[in-house]
Design a protein that fits this description.
By secondary structure, the chain is an alpha/beta fold. Helix content is 35%, strand content 20%. The chain has eight helices and eight strands. Strands 1, 2, 3, 4, 5, 6, 7 and 8 form an eight-stranded mixed beta sheet that branches. A hairpin with a 2-residue loop joins strand 2 and strand 3. Helix 2 runs parallel beside helix 4.
Length: 221
């Protein structure tokens, strides 16, 4: 066991996080200019080898498989390694027959990897079907921000979705949405409260209420 990453300390029971290790390493499939240097700087700045970390833990005494995005690593983007880690974590949850808890903090797909990044969306959707067949729930906690391909794929398929206070939520970010539509967005658009009002999430939670709410959901399910 070890101390959970900062993104999980308000989620899991203290001292229960057990990270999964693997030999996955992000590469440069397109020879994208400067990408290798960006990966190195991201690892140094985020203190993590990738945008997604997975592990086993307990929440309110309930065993779960946990996946955490880290926005500090290239905007929490989902590339080939991140997608594979999510898929493996979902499959482990199905095999262990425990719930899967996801905390997002992402700008979406990692375009420096081209189609290898985009194909992660159907990959994680397929893995999500695996846990559905095992009759185990998926609970998502939308952190700041939660946008792009991660929201459009795995996050949107959660059985229960909660949003953290202050989170920006939406497929395209507010500035991109205004540029595409050519008009101002509605007041409060892309906020956690807007997502709640429009049925995208079940509740908006403060940091201190995250673990109790997750515990309630896990106990009910």
């Amino acid at each position: 066991m070890r101390e959970a990453p900062s993104q999980a300390r308000h989620i899991v029971d203290a001292g229960t996080f057990r990270p999964h290790s693997d030999d996955l390493v992000s590469r440069d499939p397109l020879g994208y200019p400067g990408y290798r240097d960006s990966l190195r700087r991201a690892a140094e700045g985020a203190g993590s080898d990738e945008s997604v970390v997975t592990g086993a833990a307990t929440v309110g005494g309930h065993d779960v498989e946990l996946a955490l995005f880290n926005f500090g690593f290239m905007g929490g983007s989902m590339g080939e390694v991140a997608g594979e880690r999510l898929a493996r974590a979902l499959e482990r949850a199905a095999e262990r027959r425990v719930p899967f808890v996801l905390r997002t903090e992402t700008g979406g797909a990692r375009m420096q990897e081209g189609m290898r990044s985009l194909v992660q969306m159907p990959k994680v959707v397929a893995a999500r079907l695996t846990i559905a067949r095992a009759h185990q729930p998926v609970i998502a906690l939308f952190g700041h921000p939660t946008t792009g391909g991660v929201l459009a794929s795995l996050a949107s398929l959660a059985d229960i979705a909660l949003a953290e206070q202050g989170a920006t939520i939406g497929f395209a970010g507010p500035r991109v949405a205004e540029q595409v539509t050519g008009r101002p967005l509605p007041p409060g658009s892309h906020t956690a409260s807007f997502a709640l009002e429009h049925g995208l999430v079940e509740d908006v939670v403060s940091p201190e209420s995250v673990r109790p709410r997750l515990h309630e959901a896990l106990a009910a399910l």
